[in-house]
Amino acid sequence: MPDVSTIDLGRPARRLRVDTLVRLRWLAVVGQMIALLVVHYGLGFPLPLGWCFLVIASSCVLNVCLRVKFGVSHRFEDEPAMVLLAYDVVQLSLLLFLTGGLENPFSMLFLAPVMISAASLSPYWTLLLGLFTGAAATILVFKHLPLPWFPDQQLELPFLYSAGVWVAIISGTAFTGVYASRVAEEARLLSDALAATELVLAREQHLTQLDGIAAAVGHELGTPLATITLVVKELIQLAKKPGFTFDMQLVEDDLALLDQQVRRCRTILGKLASLDDEKSGPLEEMTLPHVIEEVADPQRNFGVDLSVAARGDLPEPVCLRNPGILYGLGNLVENAIDFARTSVQIRMVWTRDRVAVSIEDDGPGFSPDVLARLGEPYVTTRGPSRRAKSEEGSGLGLGLFIAKTLLERSGASLSMGNAHVPATGAIVTITWPRIAFERGSGPRNKDKVGLSAAMARLP
Fold first, then answer.
1. Which residues pair with 360 in a beta bridge?
2. What pLDDT score was predicted for residue 450?
3. Which one of 60, 181, 228, 410 has the largest count of C-beta atoms within 10 Å of its C-beta?
4. pLDDT at 9
């Protein structure tokens, strides 16, 4: 799997689409036209309709040009997207200039382009658009045509009112920009983390299939290769006999057998090449101790004492070989090894209803500032002193999120915390309903044992 720190996990998909901007602008055009017609003809307030409709027509022309030049699914880079949103600010400013400036109640629509920018563009471009919007609002405080009113009356609002509206627009722009940008950034981080999870799961699925199929292929190839070896030896011995002449009838059966075994080998190797989803026989199911041993075995050579304990009065839980469970548990064990001082202990307990795995280390434990946020994406767990075995993805803070996500997909729930004083270290407990852990495997067990009591009796 590629390093998730060096790949684009979906940023292009979050850029503004041409279709989105065009649709929003058409909605604005329709709303502006309705508002002008209602005010002019419905309320009887005189408006410079010609100039106003000319400004609206410019938006229509821009929309048509965008439709002609770009495909519906085309997405803009940040800079051209910001320019188009700045045009919307200019168009609204011209309409407000013709209809009373900031005294017009529709001046609050200045917030719309800034909100769109904050949700879709980088903070730099959103800041530029916000400053541009503030400059446009400031000009409208001093330069604008009178607010439309009844023909025989003149409405003059105090300057203090316009100043108040200006302050409201500026503060609303700043608050909306920061708030929408923060919410959008959290959504981006979560989206990237989920994309990384999918990449990890796909990698683990691929490796799991390769491991199982390769083992099966090694077993299945033994028989046809032994047959081929035997037939070839017989043919060689036959060819070495004095006066040997090639007789098709004499070797026909042997050649047919060779052809059959070669085709069988090709079929077996085809399974390895295709990495399909076929069942892998006895390799498809694993007991809980086998699962733990598979994830723990690669971590035994890093100078930390890794011990495994199990307790359960019932037959061992059996699950289908699940790459999500294997990767999730493996990540948690590796994390414990990284931070442990001398030892890591894995405890397994199973009852009629539950299956639990506890991973404990004697390291520094989770730092208080991240303990409440454990499991969220981009949260680095326990400081810089880890025993790093790989630089892949280091510093991203995605490992625990990915492990938690994959294990929860299998039906597990995770609890994370630190050991009680005076002990030190972190404790991560993964618990499945037994029916969820054994989903799709053999029959369920019937006897019942208290899970918490069994866990307490483990060494």
1. 345, 427
2. 44
3. 181
4. 45
Taking the C-alpha atoms of residue 359 and residue 335, their distance in angstroms, rounded to an integer, is 10
User: Can you name the residues that pair with 358 across neighbouring β-strands?
Assistant: 347, 429
Question: Residue 421, exposed/middle/buried by CB under 10 A (0-12, 13-18, 19+)?
Answer: exposed
- Parallel, antiparallel or unpaired: strands 413-418 and 354-361: unpaired
115: closest CA among 176, 72, 55, 175? 176
Comparing CA positions, the residue from 273, 283, 293, 271 lying closest to residue 322 is 283
Tokens of 21: 């901007």
Strand partners, 433: 354
DSSP assignment of 99-160 equals: TTGGGSGGGGGGHHHHHHHHHHS-HHHHHHHHHHHHHHHHHHHHS-PPPP--TT------HH
Q: Is 422 helix (H, G, I), strand (E, B) or coil?
A: coil
Classify residue 420 by burial, with Cβ atoms within 10 Å: 0-12, 13-18, 19+: exposed
H or E stretch covering 419: none
Question: Splitting the chain (459 residues) into consecutive groups of 10 residues, what average pLDDT does each group show?
Answer: 44 68 91 91 87 93 90 80 92 91 87 87 88 92 85 77 88 87 75 68 60 54 77 80 70 79 75 50 75 87 87 85 83 88 91 91 83 64 48 50 80 87 88 85 44 47
What gap in Å lies between CA 202 and CA 136, rounded to an integer? 50
Q: Which residue has the tokens 């400036």?
A: 101
How far, in Å, CA of 405 to CA of 331, rounded?
Answer: 12
Question: What pLDDT score does 390 carry?
Answer: 42
Contact 455, 336 (CB under 8 A): no
How far is residue 323's CA from residue 128's CA, in Å, rounded to a whole number? 47
Residue type, 182: R
pLDDT value at residue 275: 47
* Distance set, CA 114 to CA 178, 270, 409 (Å): 10, 56, 38
> Taking a C-beta distance cutoff of 8 angstroms, is the pair 445, 315 a contact?
yes
**Residue closest to 26 by CA, chosen among 68, 78, 83, 67:** 67
The pLDDT assigned to 271 comes to: 57
Q: Which helix (H) or strand (E) holds 384?
A: none
